[in-house]
């Protein structure tokens, strides 16, 4: 698989310790495995301020979020391996990992995989799509020796753990 990955760090010192480009590449490759033979994408690590601005401008939600994906809009007749951009907020990831009692690095892996799956066209707008995407995330993360980030089986109702 030929993957051109650009990892950008646009964070302050107090935003925590982000994962290395090599680790991010491992997660991206796991998400792309079997889906694409060739891909170009960017993973940008940002501050809460930057992701809040993006979230406000593109999703009309004026608050920070963990990850945003911006798929490349293909032009008919032009075949490029460009997937798009995944933007991850270091501060939100750290806060969520602590709140959800998850390993920090595991939550990072989940959010990068989640973002890449969005670039590949997966979504969680309705219940069926969400279940499909969650199953795929669980499978990819299991291949990385990371446990189920949802803590339940997506094929069962949440209250039937």
Strand order of the largest sheet: 1-2-4-3
Percent strand equals 15-25%
Q: Mean pLDDT score, rounded?
A: 91
CATH topology type: Collagenase (Catalytic Domain)
Backbone CA Rg:
16 Å
The CATH superfamily appears as Metalloproteases ("zincins"), catalytic domain
As for the number of domains, it is 1
Main beta-sheet annotation: 4 strands, mixed
Question: What is the CATH architecture annotation?
Answer: 3-Layer(aba) Sandwich
- Based on helices, strands and strand pairing, what is the structural class? alpha/beta
Apparent shape: globular
Element order: H for helix, E for strand? EHEHEEHHH
Provide the helix percentage.
40-55%
Q: How many strand units? A: 4
* Number of separate helices: 5
Q: What's the CATH class label?
A: Alpha Beta
Overview of this structure, please?
The protein has 161 residues and is of the alpha/beta class. It contains five helices and four strands. Strands 1-2-4-3 form a four-stranded mixed β-sheet. Strand 1, helix 1 and strand 2 form a beta-alpha-beta unit. The longest helix is centred in the C-terminal third of the chain and has 17 residues. The N and C termini lie far apart (37 Å).
Brief write-up:
This protein is an alpha/beta fold and 161 residues long.
Sum up the structure in keywords.
single chain; 161 residues; Collagenase (Catalytic Domain); globular; disordered C terminus
Topology readout:
Layout: E1 2-10, H1 21-32, E2 38-46, H2 48-59, E3 67-71, E4 82-89, H3 90-99, H4 104-119, H5 127-143
Parallel strand pairs: 1-2, 2-4
Antiparallel strand pairs: 3-4
Helix pairs in contact: 1-4, 3-4, 4-5
């Amino acid at each position: 698989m030929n993957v051109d990955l650009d990892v950008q760090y646009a964070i302050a010192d107090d935003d925590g310790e982000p994962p290395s480009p090599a680790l991010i590449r491992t997660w991206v490759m796991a998400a792309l495995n079997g889906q694409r033979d060739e891909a170009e994408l960017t993973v940008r690590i940002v501050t809460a301020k930057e992701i809040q601005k993006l979230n406000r401008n593109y999703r009309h939600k004026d608050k920070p979020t963990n990850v945003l994906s911006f798929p490349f809009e293909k032009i008919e007749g032009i075949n490029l391996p460009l997937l798009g951009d995944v933007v991850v907020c270091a501060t939100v990831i750290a806060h969520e990992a602590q709140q959800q009692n998850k390993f920090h690095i595991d939550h990072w892996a989940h959010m990068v995989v989640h973002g890449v799956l969005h670039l590949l066209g997966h979504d969680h707008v309705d219940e069926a799509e969400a279940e499909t995407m969650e199953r795929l995330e669980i499978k990819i993360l299991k291949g990385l020796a990371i446990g189920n980030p949802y803590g339940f089986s997506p094929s069962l109702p949440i209250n039937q753990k």
